Amino acid sequence: MIIYPYRLKVTNKKNEFIFPSASLCGVTLYYLLENIAITFTMASNVGVISSIVPFFTAILTYLFLKEEPLRINFFIGFVVAITGIYLISFNGATKLQLNPLGDLLAVTATLV
Of 44, 31, 49, whose CA–CA distance to 104 is shortest? Predict the structure, then answer.
């Protein structure tokens, strides 16, 4: 109200549903699922899984918007980035501990 003191006129009733649901999914559900996932699995697993958010964003953009094709540079960059994140997160740990429920919640959080 301070920045724009005038009431915005609703031009499309569809936006009245889209904007609140986008804020619910984009912030609330993501952090809720991620924090619940941390209670079931290791934080390093959730860190690695949540780092694939840009990958899912690019794939979903390609599938739904079809604006730009995915190039090989995207996949090479993704593999290099995930390798670096894995090396930092697991820092010499030889045993990878998986918990299917926690890992599935983390993947669901990245999709949200």
Answer: 49
